[in-house]
Amino acid sequence: MPLSSSLLEQVRPYTLCTPDRLENLAALCIHLNQEAVPGDFVECGTYKGGSAAILSKGLGESRHLWLYDSFEGLPPTTERDGEDAKAWIGECVGTVPDLKAVMNAVGTSESAYTIKPGWFETTLQHDLPEQIALLHCDADWYDSVLLVLETFYPRISPGGCVILDDFGYWEGCREAFYDFCQRHGEKPILERVGPDQAFWFKGRSHNRQVIPGIHADQYVPRSSLQETIVQLESKVQFLNEQLQHTNQQLQHTNQQLQHTENELEFVKSSRFWWLREQWWSFKQNTGQVK
Ligand SMILES: C[S@@+](CC[C@H](N)C(=O)[O-])C[C@H]1O[C@@H](n2cnc3c(N)ncnc32)[C@H](O)[C@@H]1O
Q1: Which residues contact 35 (CB under 8 A, 6 or more apart)?
Q2: Which terminus of the chain is more exposed, N or C, with fewer CB under 10 A?
Q3: Which residue has the CA at smallest separation from atom 6 of ligand 1?
Q4: What fold characterizes domain 5-222?
Q5: pTM attached to this predicted model
Q6: How far is the CA of 119 from the centre of ligand 1 (A)?
């Protein structure tokens, strides 16, 4: 279910998610609406709001969107998150105005969503949505992901969906998933999109009935034609930039040439040049040069 390119363009400055992951979010919203799975949509890890804006377009008639983020960037890591994660502490700082701006840009009214700013350790303590159809967990670290799953999983409806944005990217996220499953005896069928995203449907025990547009093996994020157009567009942009650069170099070379011609003209009209000419003709006349 490819998203319109204009919607993707609108959210692009507000998200770290790749188009295939955003397209899968949109496809999951459509599926949950078609199946009338009851509950709201929740996102933990909203940053500037790009993925939240995509979810907001898939709310359908009666759902509400709950958005949780510190708006102070990523918290400290633990050993489980690995060495590379340390460099990201305090990064990914979104703001509430960023979030509202992208919601506005895609035409989502403020009544459709609730923003819960602050650390999950505080905001997940009270006033939680009663029933959830979709949980988008884009919170990167072990502690954050585990807390999100522990808090919201019991509220997810049968057939509802959990998406882990960082399953293949951050080892802490993957470990939190497996630790959570072990604690609760869960054995989800983990579906994958690209190298990072993973998702599953609560209570689904087999894939003998495939869900069109959802299952990874059937999932085609863009038609090959769209893919080719995108590649060609970026090639044209690259060539245009090169052409511009070459034109600038040509202009510079022309200016230098003009400068040199002017200098030559000046030298030729000088007394020195006249004497030089006289000297050469004297040498020729006296047979000193041929
Ligand atoms: C990768 S960003 C989210 C990206 C976003 N979904 C997008 O569309 O690009 C991760 C976010 O998780 C938030 N986060 C992680 N752990 C948190 C915690 N314990 N409490 C509050 N926010 C947290 C960070 O503030 C950060 O904005």
Answers
A1: 159
A2: C
A3: 46
A4: Rossmann fold (3.40.50)
A5: 0.78
A6: 10
